[in-house]
Predict the structure.
Amino acid sequence: MIKWNKHIDNRWKLVSVVISIIILDLLFLYYIKYKNQGLPLSDINFIYTGNLLNLIFVLILIVGIIFYSFNEKNIYNPRLLIFYTALITFSLLFAEFYVWVKIPVPDYFILEHPLKDVLKGILFTIYQLIVFMFISAVWITFLGRKELLILRTVINSIIIATLLLVVAFFHLSSDVEKNFAKNYTGNAKFVGVVMGAAVWSNNQPSPSLASRADMAAELYKNGILKKIQVTGGHAPGELSEAEVAYHYLKLKNIDSTNIWIENKTASTSEQIRFIKNELMLKKHLNNIIIISDSYHLARIKEICKFYKIEARFAPSEMNLSFDSKIYYRFRESIALLVFWFFAL
């Protein structure tokens, strides 16, 4: 009896250490999410979708660890807990180390995203997949299925990630269909922010960028916008996305003095940060209309929630084929999941 109690005591000590490390990893992840977006921890909102997902999966993992460690089936293996705890902690630290060091990478683009941002997303995604594997390992073993454990954990992790992707896809599709309509009134009191998009050769706006600028011009000429803020820095030509949009708007007979240029941002989240820091906090402009394609606005809305930005949204009128709609929504679903989990 004494020997058994010593075993239980040692087991509790290890489980307590493991759970403490997992909780610290979660708190560190929250810190990373807000630090990377230039926001103070005082802005944290635990019921925001992404933060809530982080918390839910950690709670599922902790409950699984307790059930796994204190069951009557004699399946407890401390090395499994130590291995996965060390692995998730190392993967999270390595991902943040990559962000902190800012390792130089070639100036390539994948799915219209800079390679450095794609690598950042991959590293953090690996951390989350390992968390899913840890969850799968403890619950599968607890349920008495130890055969092909590694294969089962990998498959379960992929299934969890796929289900989350499906949820994100339908969430975006629902927002696209229901929440963005041009129902603005007022006497030119809004600032319209044109989100950056690709620039084609010879500094020509892509159809996406042109359609966003067209919507801004329409709202301006209808007396809804008093200023137009164009955004976007990266582009393969001589001019930035913002500069190309600026010249395009001038051709639409928009007074150039009413067009502001921001040509440093390289991602959607950076542009939302610009809106908050430069337009809302510095210039005290709170009547903002964000202009982009409908498939993009759904993710923008989620990022605005993270930043606690109250804005209106105007969809462009770009027509997409069915295949293009599926492609863009699939791409946005991946980007939304990455932002929900890691604020990237």
Summary: The chain has two domains: 2-147, 190-319. Residues 2-147 form one domain. The beta strands are 109-110, 113-114, 190-194, 199-200, 204-205, 225-231, 259-262, 288-292, 312-315. The longest helix spans residues 2-36.
